[in-house]
Amino acid sequence: MNFARITLLAGHYGSGKTQLALNIALLLKQTRPDVALVDLDIVNPYFRSSDHAEMLRAHGVRLIASEFAGSNVELPGLPSETAAVFDSETLSSVMDIGGDDRGAVALGRYAEKLRREATALLVVNRYRLLTADADAALQIMREIERAGHIRFQGIVNNSNLGVQTTARDVLATREFAERVGALAGLPVVLTAVMASLADEVAGEIGPLLPLTIYDKSVWRI
Description:
The chain contains nine helices and eight strands. By secondary structure, it is an alpha/beta fold. The protein is globular and about 45 Å long.
């Protein structure tokens, strides 16, 4: 997939947005000189992109994160550095939007710029209870769109059962992802899969994004 200059990832809690954000940011850094990961997970304190700040710095990826994320501040604002995402035409950014529709509320001030400049991708996980069927995933998508005043352009199928995921588990979610896409009128642009399973599912459910898993204990968060 040819990622846009700004890629926004959002979805239900547990869909795996943070793992995707880390992987995409590091992938972009291989071919682009200036890359930032914007951690806007305002709800979940257990696994955030900023937990890997040192690793990101070591790879030359800039981290932009709210100092209040994961705190008891109900709706923390976006960090001031977020403006750089839109002001610099040479900066490629991956935005990790956590907290379902609650997290998307903070995007309001940048909604117009996001609609114009970003590609927003809905991350879905068939194996999470509240998104176990396509209709439920679509409902969550609409809630995020309304809260953040954004519009999604594609679906990422990140269905997994953590480290116990098999190739068969991944392939079994193809119909689910396609159903979500059909209901939303959007393409399934990627299926994310552990790198160790990529060869087993290649050609069956592509295009693929092989994942390096940075924290196996909370992979699906």
